[in-house]
Design goal:
single chain, mainly alpha, 10 helices, DedA-like, transmembrane, Membrane protein, VTT_dom
Amino acid sequence: MRGPAFMTAPLFAASQLAVNVLSAQSLLAAFGVLGVGVVMFAETGLLIGFFLPGDSLLFTAGLLCTGSGQHGVKLSLAPLLVAAAVGALAGAQCGYVLGRKAGGALLARSRSVRLREGAQRAEELLERYGHAKAIVLARFVPVVRTVLNPMAGALGVPARTFTVWQVAGGLVWSLGLTLGGYALGSSIPNVDRYLLPIIAVIVAVSLLPLAAELYRSRRAAKAKEVRG
């Protein structure tokens, strides 16, 4: 009798330790506020973090501060906001420094098609919209927010310019999504039942600034052609 019970204990512990890094709820249940800071740093500062769920993690974490989440996960809002902001800002600055020192070598060695496409889009953003707009807009585009920081360093964007605008964009992105989740969780009972469609909407909305800029640039280009 003792044998089977003894064997189930490590199996239960192993199942508790299993974490799905692509799931915001799994990451938050396992690591809490600390996990938010680490993921923000990895996604914005390290190329290996391009697949992490940044948008959904911030929104879900904010929602869980209201006690509306599943599995009894409850986070504190103030530490969460600090962890999200510090992780996002420190990660972007780290990515910039790595890009400045290593140039494009890190991206050139990558075999990920998605990462290479993101690097191309990041470079196009910097060329088309200038440093300030590109750095802010990139925060709201998955993968691009990972690769734009080292690309900015590799392409010689001035450190002061990068720092000012990455801080501005990073605060709006990290705090905005977190507070958005908190506000929604506070106003709608049992909102966690609709979490997946809500996250899909959040990701779509986060792409609106980039879509608006693309629309404006195309209209401006057409206007120039007509005048020419």
